[in-house]
Amino acid sequence: MDKQTNLSREDRLANIRATPLETVGQNPRFFSGTTKSYKDIWNHKELLGRLVGRELKARYKDSSLGIAWSLFRPLVQLLIYYFIIGQILGTARLVPNFAVFVFIGITMWTLYSEVLSRSTVSIMDNAGLIKKVYIPREVFPLSAVGSALVNFAIQTLVLILGITFFSDFVWSPEVLLAPLAVLTLLIFSSALGMLLAGVNVYLRDTQHFVEIYIAVFFWVSPIVYPFTYVANALKDSWLLEAYLANPVTISIIGAQKALWSAGSSATGELAQIWPENLEIRMFIWLLVSIVFFWLAQRIFARLQGNFAQEI
Fold this sequence. Notes:
The chain has 311 residues and is mainly α. The chain has one domain (28-310). It contains 15 helices and no strands. α3 crosses α8 and α5 (98-120) runs antiparallel to α13. The longest helix has 28 residues, at 139-166. The model is unreliable at 1-5 and 264-269 (pLDDT under 50).
């Protein structure tokens, strides 16, 4: 019995020695590992979908109305902008279709800020799972992007209702700038969120910095005020170009030009000024965002090797 046991143990060891070693995980090499990393993420797309569903369920846990709150909240916001701020406070007399104008910026900024804030803490929030099994760590910040997109879709529905009932918007080819603006913002925020998620594992203060950044830069982008004010204040100085050197700002302005009826100074309203070559700027930032996403993923692939030890 002992002899058979010893033989079987030796056989098992021999089989283990004969089995070729396989590398588990992604290739951390900066250029050559790109394709394998993306294939690894794609092979776990079902898990990514489950993580998105889990995050949405956790957000509305023990709520009777559940995800319906995602519809009510922006709808109430839109009505407040229209009646209280636009009509009662009289802002609509200066900025035409003020409620729609603000809500376009809010919708775009909410997508950006939600992707950024949730992605940054996504690795730490899933520390238990990361310590137990290997899965491409990118699925965690990307799941934050997925849940943000669900809320964005609901908020966009409210925006379309607002444009229909509270705006004199006239459809034109410029409406095609809207999907370009959303795509640019989504790619840029996903890249930045993934990068910050990796950095946050090593520098835990990163998530607090992101909170301050989101609060401050809300006012840097033309969300509650038109770009016209910035253009008139900065004129043609280098500060104006510095202000426009921001993909979030360009994306918000692009969405406003696509979906907002800006009015005319002849009616006593504010005549909107748009940045020169806005369409070209948007395409340039789209290309820059794509490159940034690749760069962020490669840095993340380098950082993720020690995640389990750090958390």
